[in-house]
Write a structure and sequence with these properties.
The chain is mainly alpha-helical and about 110 residues long. The chain has four helices and no strands.
């Protein structure tokens, strides 16, 4: 399986408390007992770690399908970064693109 599959399995075990033994490529999130809130949390963690947004993933998606979706999202993100001359790292990218937050004076 791809590195994306390993990332998803890692998040499911380390952050969402699922047993590695229960995780199979053909397992759906519904099979694993993940509700919509847990899927949202998975998406946030994936985006924080990779800079790529998971789209089209729901409770009926398998882990293999989700890994493929992440592979596509990462490829698209890398292409976008390259087209704009930005580094592919999510932290480097956010430092260059996002404005600094300024606290209002009182």
């Amino acid at each position: 399986m791809s590195a994306s599959y390993g990332q998803i399995v890692g998040i499911l075990t380390d952050s969402l408390g699922r047993s590695r033994a229960a995780l199979r490529p053909e397992s759906t999130f519904a099979d694993l007992g993940l509700d919509s809130l847990a899927l949202l949390e998975l998406g946030v963690i994936v985006e924080e770690r990779t800079g790529a947004r998971l789209e089209g993933v729901d409770a009926r998606s398998t882990l293999a399908e989700t890994a493929t979706a992440l592979d596509h999202a990462l490829a698209s993100r890398l292409a976008d970064c390259a087209a704009h001359g930005l580094p592919p790292s999510p932290t480097e990218h956010s430092k260059r693109v996002l404005p600094t937050t300024v606290e209002p004076s009182r």
